[in-house]
Amino acid sequence: MTPGVETLRALLASPSSGTATDTVLRLLAGEKLEPADAELAALLDATRALIPVIEQAMWGATPDIDSPLLETYQAAFRLMEQMIAQQGDDPRYRFVVVIPVADRPLHLSNCLESLLILCRTYAYGGLADGRYRKLAVIIADDSQAAEHIATNRSIAERYNEAGIDVDYFGLEEQLAVLAALNDAERQALSGIVGTDGRSDFSHKGASLMRNITYLKLNRMADADARALFYFIDSDQEFQVRIPGPAGDREIFATNFFYYLDQVFTRSGATMLTGKVVGDPPVSPAVMAGNFLDDVIAFLRLIASASPADTCQFHDDHGMRGDDASYHDMAGLFGFAASSAAYRYRCTLTGPHNNGDCFADFSARLQRFFYGEHPTRSTYYRHENTLAGVRQARTVYTGNYIFKPEALRYFIPFASLRLRMAGPVLGRIVRAEIPDAFVSANLPMLHRRTVRDSGQTEFRAGVAAVAEEIDLSGEFERQFYGDVMLFTIEKLADLGFPAQLPLRAQIVETLQATYRHLCDLYNQRRQLIAEKLDELTAILHAPDNWWNREPDHAAARVGFDAFVANIARNFGEQSYTAMQAPELRAQRLDEIASAILRYPQDCTVWLETLARLAR
């Protein structure tokens, strides 16, 4: 008998021979039994009852999972799927996974590989003629580079051959969908789906790309009433990350499709949002302050040790990874601000010393500007998925699922191409269907850089030339995205979108929000400047061993490049440019006009969906 099944038998106090539970345990142990059809219902119920028992054992006192028990957990789901297939009646939801991607073929390939492993591990919906029956994928490609477009097409073909129905939705296919709009619709919906007819229709941005894909999904909605549309980001994977004594572990410990089906079946949910673990879902534009705290703490600690000593950065030090601990202004979103520095956890394996760790951290610093946070990774925390379903207020656009009727909720203000589109959508959905908009503990693993190599792919608003990285585009999109979000939040308290305020009230609210955020961002800039001065002083102190020994010169260069990029992107000049009068007037006018136009956008959108569905 396998160790996992032995553990289960002990937990269940050795169920009596001949019972349904005993038979299931024997099947999980590998015995060749052939249950009669009349037994299936009881065996299926027993298998379903075992799953939460295994979960409770897996996620007991520590987050480290016993591997045999995890294997038994996965085997129980596969056994359940075999029984459902034998019964021949499976009314569960079918999932259409949509992956918007722009010039990230490596991320896309890793994402789809994780999906294939998930399918093989848990077998949701089972197989028919070698294909997963309750799963389809749409690759919504917004790439610009011809070689990436060709690679993405070949990736779609590869996973089609592996048994997943993958539909490549490229630029030509997107223009064909938009061609179905009449002239009046095309004009009226320009703020939702952009304008077509350009020679280059790429890099529209994720919000426009999602809305255009909604038009494609609208054609599918009537054909499959039991479909759920599942939007994810290409830099995510269907697994979770947990800390362990030997380093972080990434595991397929969540049966996403099974639990999503359960939530939508048992509740009145119309839209559900998950979260992410791993790298933060926010921009580096709002993480510099707390990361500087962590880098300073690292340098102070390692300076007091010998570079030849065994690396001291491997124990977990009470690892936290709290919600929004990576965000400099977490208080804006209702989270407690982090006041203490987080300790870096070395990623090197095998024998190495503090000098090696210093060099490795130096090499990782530049990843911060692409959204990775080397000191504040978020880890999975288990809770009963169904018991943990609660009302939501924010849509994580890299992990949200909805019924076809929620196609009415397009990504608002998409043509502005600002960040925070998901939270804005969430505030609107919460105002209209608060009880049907929920969140659940079903996070995906988020990787800002490519697994193993640490390579970065395309990031909107981030430009790099050699070691110089420019976040100005990202910074502007973040700041005015925050202005948009918190303006919408205030207007929602006044009844928006059901009640549309006058333009004067919208403008007044926008300007007040702008001034408040300017104050917060400028206070943060001053703190960053002070922390950067402190970091620079420690880094260049002649008594510190990395300045005395030539072996560490290359690592010092990495730290110097990091300091220069922080100064370039978070200095006074960057804030002055972002808040320039001309840009401020343009952005606030665009946001005000988009808010005023929103009710009309909704009307035309619904009419268009209805016409195209006929």
Shape: globular
User: In terms of per-residue confidence, which ranges show pLDDT below 50 for 5 or more consecutive residues?
Assistant: none
Largest sheet composition: 8 strands, mixed
Strand content: 5-15%
| Count of alpha/pi helices | 20
Count of DSSP strands: 17
State Rg. Answer: 26 Å
Gap from first CA to last CA: 57 Å
Please state the structural category: alpha/beta
Strand line-up in the sheet with most strands: 5-4-1-6-13-10-14-12
The proportion of residues forming helix, as a percent range, comes to 40-55%
Mean pLDDT: 90
Short key terms for the protein model shown above:
eight-stranded mixed beta sheet, alpha/beta, 20 helices, 614 residues, globular, three-stranded mixed beta sheet
How are the SSEs placed, and which strands pair?
Layout (H helix, E strand, L loop, with lengths): L2 H9 L8 H9 L11 H19 L8 H21 L6 E8 L3 H18 L4 E2 L2 E2 L2 E7 L4 H16 L3 E5 L1 H9 L3 H6 L1 H4 L12 H16 L5 E6 L3 E2 L2 E3 L6 E3 L4 H11 L4 E3 L2 E3 L9 H16 L50 H11 L25 E2 L7 E4 L18 H12 L4 E3 L4 E3 L16 E3 L2 E3 L1 H22 L9 H38 L4 H4 L4 H18 L1 H7 L2 H33 L1
Parallel strand pairs: 1-4, 1-6, 4-5, 10-14, 11-15
Antiparallel strand pairs: 2-3, 6-13, 7-15, 8-9, 10-13, 12-14, 16-17
Kindly describe this structure.
The protein has a domain at 3-87. The protein contains 20 helices and 17 strands. By secondary structure, it is an alpha/beta fold.
Task: Provide a compact summary of the structure.
This protein has helices at 3-11, 20-28, 40-58, 67-87, 105-122, 146-161, 171-179, 183-188, 190-193, 206-221, 256-266, 288-303, 354-364, 421-432, 472-493, 503-540, 545-548, 553-570, 572-578, 581-613, and strands spanning 94-101, 127-128, 131-132, 135-141, 165-169, 227-232, 236-237, 240-242, 249-251, 271-273, 276-278, 390-391, 399-402, 437-439, 444-446, 463-465, 468-470. By secondary structure, the protein is α/β, with parallel strands linked by helices.
